[in-house]
Amino acid sequence: MVTDTTPENQVADARSERDRFVAFAFCWADALIELNEAQEVTFAAGTTEALIGCAPADLMGKNFIDLVAEGDRTLAQQLINIAKKRGRIENATIRLSSEQRDSQPLSFAGYRLGDFSDHFFLALRAGATSTTTPSGKNLSRDGESGLYTSETFSELAGQQLKEAKEAGIEAEVSLVSMPDMEKLKDRLDDDAEKSLVDTVSASLRANSINGDAAAEVADGKYALVHDASVDIQDIQDQLSQATKEIDPTGEGVEAEAATFDVADNDVEDEDLANGLMFAMNKFKTGKGSDFNLQDFTSNLSGMVDEAMHSVQEFRDIVAGGKFKVAFHPIIHISTSKIHHYEALVRFDNLAEGVSPFETITFAEEVGLIWQFDLAMAKKVIEWLFEHRDQDYSIAVNISGNSITNMNYLKGLQELLKLNFWARGKLLFEITESSRIADLVTANRFFQTLRDEGYEVCLDDFGAGAASFQYLASLEVDVVKLDGSAVKNALMARKGKAFLSALARLCKDIDVQTIAEYIDDDDTLKFVRDCGVDYVQGFMFGEPSTDIEVFDESGHIVRSSL
After folding, report:
1. What Å distances lie between residue 337 and 110, 418, 525, 535, 536, CA to CA?
2. Pair 316, 322: CB distance under 8 Å
3. What is the DSSP letter of 262?
4. How do strand 120-126 and strand 31-35 relate by DSSP bridges?
5. For the segment 409-447, what is each residue's pLDDT rounded down to a tens digit?
6. Is there a smaller number of Cβ atoms within 10 Å at the N or the C end of the chain?
């Protein structure tokens, strides 16, 4: 067989290849655009008018970057630059600009084809690649950089690593640390700072799988999932050089980058996501001269494996109900009688020296706290049903992380619907309130509970600067004053005035107050003089799994053994 290699036939073959690509692309895409080396449109087909506001013929000769929404132009340019080296872009997300409508997210893939080596083809489809994580939570991004938060990244990274493996692609997770980023930002004006953030974000996203698998874990700390062919040293150099160019002193920031191997075993996507979330939290909190990125990543694979093992153990505890409820009374300060009890956990067979708090903290770090919160609510409702002939009221804790988890919200809604009789007996106390990022969603959840007859208490109040913002944004029935805030007020010269003013403010907006860490008569007298409504503390005895050990004033009258 003789192959015709004349130039005319080569062009014909190349055009045939393009035509086949066009046909294939339209199985997935809404529109197809061909770009030349100068990134000008040389061919367009499909529903470009609906996507961009221009008919195919009107796009000819336009520079593609000019069609991209201003905020995504750096990213688009980075993606195309990288694609020129690798030959493809896979299912990335950008926004295109349109005079007729607001910018809208588009999924797009891009390929360089055979003899069309100086041309690049983009297949476009309306809508972002995804709007939720595998667990159903909305994708969460940093408001400044547009990169994913560490929690969202952990879920998506677990899924992307598994999908890459199934597709025969070797993928890796890398961490990037730029420890002096905040100092650099202080040297920049607003425009230069925005340019810096956009450049760093675009470089990380463009080098990641799908052009969107990157996260800002903390200030100056980033993570990305990428093809193993990506040179992480090149990313490190790109970022370091970009900061030097934008820094008026020319000093810039030296970026550090390191890659770690995720265990190559057949684990569930969710378990892998939990392990990665644990690792991201450790990366987030590592700081100071003792923190070394290379040492950290060299131990990270084992950390992820260990976390996944602990996750499976924790799931077994939750599924098997291998924990007990301990009760701690909340005392009305005027009547000196128990108003209700807080339900606390006591895990069965917990290793010596490991506190329930450590186990709960681990569940927070790996994103499993919603499962425990739901299991605890079920156990307390079962207990209340067994003691339905007595007048008990129990407060169940809900983590600030759980209230935005769709699985938790759905599970709790079904649980309360089946146990409507628990109204007036069950209260909800929101713990780790500092983790509440979406105040609008949180308040909507609180009002749903309150409308159904359940009181809501906001824990940890006064422990941080955001407390008053929470009080202004979240409608609740009770706030629990953080124990450290109570102790500090007791010792501070102006502490009594501060706590009294806070208690008065709460009364003015019809919110009751509970003071915790009431361990002696002096503290009790102090908060009573400040106008606090309820108290909780060890002066009334420690929590007990036997509720009958408490007398009506909350004191332990007999041993629970």
Report:
1. 70, 31, 16, 10, 11
2. yes
3. P
4. antiparallel
5. 999 999 999 999 999 999 999 987 666 777 888 899 999
6. N
